[in-house]
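Lecture 7 notes: from sequence to structure.
We start with the chain below.
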Amino acid sequence: MRDLPELLILDVGHGNCAILRDTMAVSVIDCGYNASILLRTLRQLEINAVDHVLISHADSDHVGGLARLIRTFPIRNIYLNSDASKAGPMWNDTLQALELAEDSGTQVIGLNSSYSQKIISGEVMLEILAPSASLAASGSGGTYLEGQSLVSNTMSVVIGLIHKSCRVVLLPGDMNEFGLNNLLKKYKNIEAQILVFPHHGGNSGSADDQEFARKLCDLVKPDLVLFSLQSNLHENPKEEVVRGVVTALPNAHIMCTQLSCKCSPVPIPSNSDHLTNLPAKGNIKGNINNSCCGGTICIKIDGDRTTYDPSLSLHRQFVKNLSESLTEHASIQKQEQSIRISSEGLSGPLCLRYLAKT
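Predicted structure tokens for the same chain:
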């Protein structure tokens, strides 16, 4: 039996999904694009029911796996905000599954900051920092007080996990610049030890992604910044975003669930000894080219003594070894487009070069 409480940040490729195992409840926060890794992890952990499912917003890479989860496991409560902008087969399947859940006794509830600290988990207190009740009432596809058009990312639920009076993790979904500014109207302190960076390190809805990342990290002041992404999709994290993170947090640990294509632009057979033994989309059994960076990350929640795996030392060693493998591969293959790993400037695989410094 694993020590509780713990939070698992699942490698589901491009998307978000986390499992909070606490002394009184099992909670799932977002379900990724599909539920395959989520279901495999729940089964490996011998979990046969879920108490709470919290969906940050209705984008497919966050809600897509919900329908399959509903049809596979009993669920006590589902927290999900409406989204008039959604349509199509995936969304229709989700709506049908929600009807099935209600018929089975599941409570389906909207989620805003008025539910903060009211969702019972056990030792961990779940903060719902955003959206505010007024913003949630406006809804995606509507307009807000200042005439701002609201999109799904604007409505993203922002969740803080507090243990022993410490905010251990901040999970902001796909929060964009408007969402951050609206959040700061109500909360002045959003510091947390671990930040799951919003929108997978992609576009922030700001004219300046670097400044958005710098501002967010300067406010949160995390020791660990996580990017949940797929190596061959969308080229995340954006270099401007990583530059902003490093500017605010020169000593922070940066880790992605999968290797960004900017860090490993060609498939390289890699050692996975640093990874946890939990299912990860980038480390499918039988695939010689493991695309994981941190894979599925296990956070042992213990107030200001919280730890995580892969640890800083193991992950840094993996990155150094990968850097050497990439340099050797580039030399052997003599590719026309060289793989440049240097400490000068900010072009090329910035995240890899930053991690390889120490």
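Points to note: The mean pLDDT is 88. The chain has one domain: 6-355.
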